[in-house]
Amino acid sequence: MERDGSAADRSLGSVKVASDREGLELAVVEARAALALDEVPVGAIVVIDGLLVARGHNRTRTDCDPTAHAEVLALRRAAAVVGAQRLVGATVYTTVEPCFMCAGALSHARVARVVWSVRDPKFGGVISLGNVLTDPRMNHCCQTAEGECADEVRALLRGFFEDKRRKARESTNTPDLS
Description:
Elements: H1 20-36, E1 43-48, E2 51-57, H2 60-63, H3 70-82, E3 91-96, H4 100-108, E4 113-118, E5 143-146, H5 150-172
Parallel strand pairs: 3-4, 4-5
Antiparallel strand pairs: 1-2, 1-3
């Protein structure tokens, strides 16, 4: 299993997740870990039979890997723990509506349920721009839910992008002193 120095490697299998709120609160912990790496603050966890199996947070910049989204990393770790490519019966909690790539990976993993905090109007592949996980033409559909922890997640995202825009403005407004 990959080790990235986060909470992702601790307490796997011993943490019980009894509600959507608890699952999303753990996903928010991972989103904060992404933020600490200057990554877009998205976190995800995988729960099977009420137990935390894997965690992940965005690492696209850190790993120079455009596929290193929180959901994909959590799925990879969960598959390694379970020893199978299919995560039948799993619930994935993620802070942001999965993009098309992540929704496709969730479908291929055959997860039973995906729960997120906020929609992604620019990239969301589950409700906002598409319906990858619920389209009846797909060979696998899963249940979806949203909304818990939305204010906290929205604040994390807003703060991250406001900080990026502020830094970009400051760098372009720096006077040339040469």
